[in-house]
Amino acid sequence: METNNQEYRISFFKPSNPQTTANRNMVLWLLLIWTVAIFGFHVVLKLIEEPTPEPILLSYQEVSQNVYQGNASLNEMQTFAKVPLQVLSKVFIVPEERIELQNALNWAIFQIADDEEKDALKAEIANFKAIEEKTTDILAQDYQQAKIELMAVAAPMLGLSDRDVRTKILPLELNTEYPQNMSEENIAQLETVLNKYLIHNESVLTNMTVLGFPFHYFYTAVFLLILFVVLCWIYCVRTDVLNKKYGIDD
Fold it and tell me: Where are the domains of the chain?
């Protein structure tokens, strides 16, 4: 009786027969496809991306010259003040950069206010800060009341409505101490911070949508998962084909 003395032990790095060689080559091809699908996409994104400013940064650039020269209208000053306020609404801000944004916001709002409004604003800020330091419960009635009273004074100065989310964070960013003027150093530091948080790399791949999702999100979160399952299925099917081809039965 003739026996089959071939060894079918799987050695990925040193295939011992045609079947293991074919299996190794198939795995390498599937890994290559998976690698290109992941890292190739990121390389393409990097190659075609372009720094794109948010609309609010463009608004800042339009009014900043008049603001710093002291020729700005009320609307221009309000537009200017809303820019650092909007950046402050972001979740992750470096503490030193938060100070720069707060200084610009406070300088602008006190530039907008007249003498009477300045006194009222300082009083409400001082009251809110005093309560804020004494309580850790932001739902406390006195805390909420002080916040509402400060919003009622400060928000109209910036032309913010009650429904604007920036109105809710405005009291948290106001201080009674603020720069009396914006020096060239202050301006340069502020613009560096604004560029950091308001300029993003975009491309046709990030602006395109698929099934309501940005294409780059759909590709990484959905398509790559589907591709992984398909590659696993191909591996199983091809393994069965190779086993039959080389006479290996379960």
Answer: 18-49+203-245, 51-202
